[in-house]
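Appendix C reproduces, verbatim, an entry submitted by the partner laboratory led by Prof. M.T., so that reviewers can inspect both the input and the predicted structure.
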Amino acid sequence: MNNPRGDVRLRAAAPDEAYADAPRLLAEMRWVTDQVAARPISNGLSREFWLRKAALLDRIALAETDERYKAEADAVAAKAAHRLARYDRERGSGPFATRNGPLPPDSPQWGSSYRPYVRQEYAAWQQIAQG
């Protein structure tokens, strides 16, 4: 969004924007579990896996309305978001960087939660995937 001084303020995509073209939850669960089942060791899991898993868990947490489960769903989504951010942070910037969105995982904009980072990255990944 532009402001009167002309500088640009970046923001993470809102959940409904980031996940607008996402597969249905059950289809995404199947994809994530199939990836794990196909590899005996988690070291071989791709960045796409960590991104889609984090996005899936974020979507589940957003959809959870039962207060008995909401805190747990949020915690699980936060843990997966931190895992994706760590994956991207370990690969740094430059030609080997894995992030697609404008803000890096270490941006102060994320505060204590990387769930908005997941939304940024998922939205950017969807744009690339759709060509």
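The first helix runs from residue 15 to 18. Additional entries are available on request from the coordinating office.
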